[in-house]
Design brief:
The structure is a single chain. β26 and β27 form a beta hairpin. The longest helix is centred in the N-terminal third of the chain and has 29 residues. The chain has four domains: about 40 residues; about 325 residues, TIM Barrel; about 100 residues, Galactose-binding domain-like (Jelly Rolls), CATH 2.60.120; about 130 residues, Sandwich (Jelly Rolls), CATH 2.60.120.260. The strands form nine sheets. It has an eight-stranded parallel barrel with strand order 4-5-6-7-8-9-10-12, surrounded by four helices. Strands 29-16-30-35-32-33 form a six-stranded antiparallel sheet. Strands 17-28-18-24-21-22 form a six-stranded antiparallel sheet, with no helix packed on it. By secondary structure, it is an alpha+beta fold. The protein is built from twelve helices and 37 strands. Helix content is about 20%, strand content about 25%. α9 packs parallel to α10. It starts with a helix and ends with a strand.
Length: about 650
């Protein structure tokens, strides 16, 4: 040590020269690093630089013919992706795939009905942790346009509004009716403080917030949009406000001081919409419909022809675009919506939407085509695509045990006695918030056969039983059923399924489910009901272990819950459940509701994400209404049905 020190001490000029060389090299390396960074971000100064700036005073501005972000020209290349339709474990994967497509902005709705399932009881945890979703978007350098509603449409039950609002017989949804605004205020008092810190001017990713959603197609109250705008501003929203409407309501849904954006699919209709917008304001297609949703009994809707030409035409005009959807995901559970423009039709479980990224997060041909197109408009090289997620085939299972519905009724926490039928929403359960989803069984006693008439009081579909034997169905089309002669008193049961509340149009106030009024036998109203709320919550499905299971070797008594076990001896992977031979019902895995199936299609498989599968045994429960199959298959490819071009 001494010798080394002495040697260095005798050569000070050498030391200085070495240090100068080190400094020179370090300086050169720093210059190279800076040059590389500048090169890397030279064409993304619009979307990336402001995010790293210390000053955030201006935010997203719309006072010229193009958007500006912190004073810099900014083109929104967005994609809709809803956290509540995707397992939380996959949020990062989907966002990185969004960036690899060339998108810089994530748009998401906020589903009020999930976040406040009972009045005054709020849930922002696990797969619906909105704050975690926004933080992740910020960490991955994605801007966010937040669409908090309170109404969101989105092919989601009641457009995201909680069903307990309908307990009020005078309720007027999406208006300034006090019963509605009081509930909105209570929800916004919880929701908005959670998102304030994620606003751009507070260092977060939110660059714009939408005021309600497609109100021009509803427009029942001239004061309503001003109320929603003030509800946001008064709680601290400071970013650019937007509205969003399609051709039916662009003029009726606009409000002073809020930038109108528009929704369409075909270029011709979009160009017509743009004629009505202010020429000196930037234009954003808030929803460029990249595909379409499916409903039971249709084909699988796809949209291909004209998509790339439309996107190219919009980009050439400097018009900002948000793909609705970039990634659709799944309507897990009973959360699908419905339409009713004279005929009620319910949406399927899958929300694949023929989007660029499939329901299971896989790249599609559409993804590749759009990525190639965007790469020509973005001078910066796109990020590499994240790795494809493996899909697995698992061993076929043979459910060998089951519980008839009639036996499972004993597991319910509460039954209701009522002289007349009560609709789901007004049942005295769930802390007087009623029943939101699932089935409701109405049971009474009859002593004769005859003609049973629903008088359109069945919402949406009722399977009718006499003495436990199915005799047919009542729904919107079939309102009459003949009951065979009986020799003694018999149980008459109506198993009523809520197939999903309408999410768009003017009939939102009419979305009460179950039996809405009297059911008539031989023109006399039936009375003396015992009502069983079959919400099929996780706790109910998991309680089956408390009773004896029956063997499926004998002819099973239907409806019934069928039990099987999927054993996974490796790392779990995504898969798809195929239910050939089964007719109509719901599938649960480890107590979680995957969604509905129905053999009328178009959807033939249910997506089962890996995060819902555990290593070892996984309990599969199938609630089947009418016809039980023998096997349950797990395949590595989805079957969404025969393509039907939009």
């Amino acid at each position: 040590m001494f010798k080394v020190f002495k040697q260095k001490a005798t050569a000070p000029m050498q030391i200085i020269a070495v240090r100068r060389e080190h400094v020179r090299r370090i300086g050169l390396l720093l210059l190279i690093a800076v040059a590389l960074l500048l090169y890397r971000f030279r064409f993304h100064w619009i979307s990336l630089t402001p995010k790293r700036m210390h000053s955030r005073n201006l935010g997203l501005q719309a006072n010229k013919e193009y958007f500006q972000l912190e004073g810099n020209k900014f083109l929104i290349l967005g994609g809709s992706m809803h956290y509540f339709r995707i397992p939380r474990a996959y949020w990062s994967d989907r966002m990185l795939k969004m960036k690899a497509l060339g998108l810089n902005t994530l748009t998401t709705y906020v589903p009020w009905n999930l976040h406040e399932p009972e009045r005054g009881t709020f849930n922002f945890k696990d797969d619906i942790d909105l704050e975690a979703y926004l933080k992740l978007a910020n960490d991955l350098d994605l801007w966010v346009i937040l669409r908090p509603g309170p109404y969101i449409c989105s092919e989601w039950d009641l457009g995201g509004l909680p069903s307990w609002l309908l307990r009020d017989r005078k309720m007027k949804l999406r208006t300034t009716y006090a019963g509605f605004t009081d509930a909105v205020n209570a929800f916004f008092n919880v929701l908005i403080p959670k998102v304030l810190r994620f606003q751009y001017k507070n260092g977060g990713p939110i660059i714009a917030v939408q005021v309600e959603n497609e109100y021009g197609g509803y427009a029942k109250d001239d004061n309503y949009m001003a109320y929603v705008k003030e509800a946001l501003l008064s709680r601290g929203i400071v970013e650019l406000l937007m509205t969003s409407d399609n051709k039916d309501g662009l003029t009726k849904g606009s409000i002073a001081g809020v930038l109108p954006t528009f929704n369409f699919q075909k270029l011709e209709s979009g160009l017509m919409l743009m004629k009505d917008l202010e020429p000196d304001k930037p234009k954003l297609v808030m929803e460029y419909w990249s595909g379409w949703f499916d409903h039971w009994g249709s084909g699988h809707h796809v949209y291909r022809e004209g998509l790339l030409n439309t996107l190219s035409a919009l980009l050439s005009k400097g018009i900002s675009i948000n793909l609705y959807m970039f990634h659709g995901g799944t309507n897990f559970g009973f959360m699908n919506g419905a339409q009713d423009f004279g005929t009620y039709i319910a949406d399927v479980t899958s929300y694949d939407y023929d989007a660029p990224l499939s329901e299971a997060g896989d790249y599609t041909e559409k993804y590749m085509q759009i990525r190639n197109l965007y790469s020509h408009y973005l001078d910066e090289e796109l990020p590499e695509k994240p790795q494809h997620l493996y899909k697995s085939r698992y061993a076929t299972i043979h459910p060998k045990e089951y519980i008839p519905l009639w036996d499972a009724l004993s597991l319910l926490e509460k039954t209701i006695e009522s002289e007349r039928p009560i609709n789901m929403e007004n049942l005295p359960i769930n802390n007087n918030n009623g029943q939101s989803y699932g089935y409701t069984l109405y049971n009474t006693i009859i002593n004769s056969g005859g003609v049973l008439r629903s008088e359109q009081n069945v919402r949406d579909r009722a399977q009718v039983f006499v003495g436990g034997q199915s005799i047919g169905f009542l729904d919107y089309k079939n309102i009459e059923l003949t009951i065979p002669d009986i020799k003694s008193k018999q149980n008459l049961s109506l198993l009523v399924e809520n197939r999903g509340r309408v999410n768009y149009g003017t009939k939102l106030d009419e979305q009460r489910k179950g039996l809405l009024g009297d059911i008539f036998l031989n023109k006399q109203p039936l009375k003396g009901f015992t009502i069983y709320p079959l919400e099929m919550k996780t706790s109910f499905i998991e309680s089956f272990s408390a009773i004896k299971l029956n063997s499926t070797r004998e002819n099973p008594v239907l409806p019934a819950f069928f039990y099987g076990s999927l054993y996974v001896d490796s790392m779990p992977y995504d898969t798809f459940i195929s239910l050939k031979g089964w007719e109509k019902g719901v599938v649960f895995i480890n107590g979680l509701n995957l969604g509905r199936y129905w053999n009328i299609g178009p959807q033939k498989t249910l997506y089962l994400p890996a995060p819902w599968i555990q290593h070892g045994n996984n309990e599969i429960v199938i609630f089947e209404e009418s016809k039980a199959g023998k096997t349950v298959e797990f395949v590595n490819q989805p079957d969404l049905g025969q393509a039907e071009h939009v």
